[in-house]
Amino acid sequence: MAVACYVSRSLAFLSCLVFFFFLISSFCFFAHATDTLTQGQSLTDGRTLVSAGNIFELRFFSPGNSNQGRYVGILYHPNISATQTVVWVANREAPITGSGGSLMVTNDGDLVVLDGAGGSVWSTNSSATASNNSTTLQLLDTGNLVLQDGGGGTLWQSFDHPTHTFLPGMKVSLNTTTSKALLFTSWKSPDDPSAGNYSMGLDPNGSAQIFIWDRGVPRWRSGQWNGHRFIGTVMRSLYIYGFDYETDESQGTAYYTYTPHNASLVRFVMEWDGMETTFMQVQETRGWETVWVQPVNQCEVYGKCGVYGTCSDDGTTTTCGCLQGFEPRSSAEWGVSNWTGGCVRKTPLDCRLNSSSNENGFFTLPGVKLPDHSDWASTIGSESGCREACLSNCSCRAYAYAASDIGCLSWGHDLIDIYQFEFPQDGYDLHVKLAASDLGKYFRVLRTTNWIVFLL
């Protein structure tokens, strides 16, 4: 009996000891900030994962002034941002009522968000299969949330599933095989993280331009990429020259990345109101400075003046006009500042072969944001060659050339989204093809085999 009692007490002591160490380990897991969650562990509302450098945190939050729902998101750590600054949301379409939610790594290697009743409201639904039972979730200092198998292979990462914020290290990518773009989608409102009306991504048509769409309709575009910057934007060089464009033919992808010029934290946000805003951290105050906003005026709204229209803005007034040789499609609409119908050509182009009586020529519009739908002629290495190629092609409407920059661009579609920059040096010269009769009273064209001279 004494022996049995002793054994019973020993087992009880061991059980208490095991339970004590379990409590201690659980306390240490959350008391000391960790960046990793392992299989079998859960992150409950009120707990936090923190990246190694205390830059980002993963936790439950309620947006803005709303207390209507709880979301799992990645936010800047309070050491970085004095205000709640969200960069990614998991269950953006399925908020949790109350504070009973949790986040866990399942046995099959998925990351799930559970409500208070244990029901799944969001999951990674990873197509990859975990190689063993040691799947881990790690929050990196880049802001990337990575689900890895025991061999270090990536099963899923938040950078491949963005919400409204683009961070350095992410890719603005396009599948060049399927023409499917990775989209950054706005919140519905400042207090509602669900998908809003606006999205940002690479042009599915492969032009290497970044677009903002309003429910699928173009709202803004960056302009063509010249190898160093986007030529359709007037952006402080401090920020615009951090972009880089790459293509990976083996993966069938094209993408932009961004590397800050210094250690400053930068984020690009697709805002709920359709503005793309770039913020830079102010370290002294843990605040954020707005360094770039697009579209900044009405001329930057896509197609504001319609086809063959050009837009100018002096900071107070937006004005549309027709290109030389064109006139409003509807004078009545233009009379009430409805310019979307654009302009039409006054005189048809002369496309007769060997014509000498009614030659076509070019009118030069200096310092503009070049139109959309351009074609790049990689084999043409001179302006005269670019001009001649456009002149001899009846479907060519215009061309632009810069030897060490964009090379030879031509347009075989109606010209749309032309913005006349305030300072011509911010843009490029656009040469618009016109019938000779529309080129001015004193204009005539002298044409040889390889070149054209304009006498004014």
From TrEMBL:
Keywords: Disulfide bond, Signal. Signal peptide: none annotated. InterPro entries: Bulb-type_lectin_dom, Bulb-type_lectin_dom_sf, Pan_app, S_locus_glycoprot_dom, SLSG/EP1. Residues 34-160 form the Bulb-type lectin domain. One of its GO terms (biological process) is response to other organism. The keyword Signal applies. The keyword Signal applies. Involved in sporophytic self-incompatibility system (the inability of flowering plants to achieve self-fertilization). SMART domains: B_lectin, PAN_AP. This is Bulb-type lectin domain-containing protein. It comes from the Eukaryota. Residues 351-435 form the Apple domain.
